[in-house]
Amino acid sequence: MSLFKSICRRGLGALVFAGLATASLGVAPAQAATPDEIKARGKLMVGLLTDYPPFGGTDANQQPAGYDADVAALLAKSLGVKLELVPVTGPNRIPYLLTNKIDVLIATFGITAERTKQVLFSNPYSSLTIYVLAPKNVAVKSPEDLKSLGGISVARASTQDTAISAVAPAGTPLKRYDDDATALQALISGQVQAMGASNTILAQLNKDYPQLNMEPKLTLREQANGMAFRKADTALAEYANAFIAEIEKNGELSKINQRWFGIPLTKLPPMPQF
Q1: What CATH number should be reported for the domain holding residue 68?
Q2: Residue 46 bridge partners (DSSP)
Q3: Helix (H) or strand (E) holding 259
Q4: Is the model's pTM score more than 0.70?
Q5: CA-CA 20 to 30 A from 247: which of 117, 165, 194, 270?
């Protein structure tokens, strides 16, 4: 199955799953702030992306699956509670957290200075590289060249959106879409010539659409991803930091990386300092 068809299939399942999850959330929103409160409740509610495989996608049964889901499962197991996975999107990730619909975001969430104003991050548990991708025969040597491209797609409010916006000169044809699936569709269908995306998207593009001849043109950011918590949930963030250190040390995190990316985990990046 092609990358685009796979993501669209995942996206449809995510919408169905999200609708069910949102309905249940309206009845009993999460209120936990500490590991003990989560243990007493008996359930951990985790927000994650389902349109960004292999970090976050869905399986054959349209259930969330991927690197982030596996990490969430280990975290719930560590706490000794059941796990409820709640699909989120790039734009609604923070609102879901701040309105108590979930306990934690494990959603390929890049640790940035701007986001630290709203949420409390754990230490990094994964990382990725953000690029501007374009065909090999297109010359892009510097940010100034971006304005000559025939459109650059990005997922609205994503790290790549922020990174490109920070360096793009006036007149750059940056086109924002609601999620990675539609941003990718725009590239595949020829609506745009380039895309702001990670190394994970690049690898899948080259596998499923080699005729596009995509390659990195500009490296925008080495992104450290952290779990995100409400500012007051310091005890839960501290628990998460100890958990991340443990699964990195005992090799469980490397096994997850091997499963989804085909290689062992390299050393996690340090916590960004702002």
Answers
A1: 3.40.190.10
A2: 85, 104
A3: helix 252-261
A4: yes
A5: 117
